[in-house]
What does this fold into?
Amino acid sequence: MSPRVTILSGGVGGAKLALGFYEVLEPKARLTVIANTGDDISLFGLCICPDTDILLYTLAGLVNLETGWGLAGDTFHAIRSAGRLGATGWFNLGDRDLGTHLFRTELLAQGVSLTEITRRLAAALGLGCAVLPMCDSPMPTRVVTDEGDLHLQEYLVRRRAEPVVKALRCEGASGARPGPALAQAIAESALIVLAPSNPLISIGPILAVPGLRELLRLSPALKVAVSPIVGGQSLKGPSDRMLAQLGHEVSPLGVARLYRDVLDAYVIDIEDGADRPAIEALGLRCAVLPTVMRDLAAKRALARGLLMLLDGFGPGDPR
Ligand code: FO1
It folds into this structure.
């Protein structure tokens, strides 16, 4: 039986690594994926959880591989009709994808928790692993920019990450708590992985759930992050630009500093091998692996490489 693994993930980039683990772990129930819900948005009265859905669709083999989000082969008749009537048209909700948002919104209105709704969605898609929202209460990330205070999706999608970011705020954080399933997964895992997702708007909000950093620190698991910065830039999305605008170094080291207090080890790409001594100087073990997941074989290989760290860097090993 495979070791128990928990991965903290945003959307597209993190879902690639989650899929790598889903492919190599046996049984698949050994995997728990904690999804960022800071990018959740309410549109047309519907609760939309983009990162959660990207993870669910990717793991189920249903995601649109060209965009990395939404369902493969979906159509956009409903959103375009609404747009022609003058409704919000900048967020592309697919016709079949809408079914997920209708299902989730109806159950939320009945008082069912987001964790339970996500469990039912995963079960309906035939997933063998657990996908958990980072918390059950809304905790939207607000982006303070030179154009004002924007919802994260407004910044990313409507304004294509063009405004200059001055600060990030996790609204509703003070009332948020990690759920019991999440606490149990963290406590019982042998390996916890911070996916190569945006450190500020994907992993950052998960770590901002009060008590979560403490749960990670208390867990006996080996805690590893994979750098989302390779060769001085982000592979996907605006991480590099956002890091620079918020005064962080745009490098694997710059991201490692953000996670330092919860990590044992850090994985950098072979292209950044020269950064290893600087990472080790932070007091972290450092492994150099191919981290660019262009195909399924690369996703599986990175998951296997991370599992192998359990032998080299396992709990109790001297630093
Ligand atoms: N990303 C876009 O760039 N444009 C869209 O219109 C869009 C719609 C969308 C609908 C459902 C969904 O689950 C995700 C969607 N995304 C879209 C992706 C999403 O905005 C981001 O990639 C994540 O929130 C960041 O992880």
